[in-house]
Amino acid sequence: MRYCFLKTISKNSNVIRKLVCENLTFLRIDLDIIKNNIRSKEIRAIQTEKSNVKILIIPTNEELEIAQQVFKLI
Fold first, then answer.
1. Which domains does the chain have, with CATH numbers?
2. What is residue 11's predicted lDDT score, i.e. its pLDDT?
């Protein structure tokens, strides 16, 4: 199982990710606090080795995607 943080608020906020994961412990999600606090523009996993769920942060560029979609329309 995988859980991905994609949107700007969740991919840029270690506090939001921590709060979300704390409420999903019934899924045996175990967030690595150190990995969670590292900022990076790369796709990265932030779970501990004992977590049953892979937690991914996937950077996105919403503005670019919107611009590309608009360009296709005109």
1. 2-73 (3.30.420.40)
2. 64
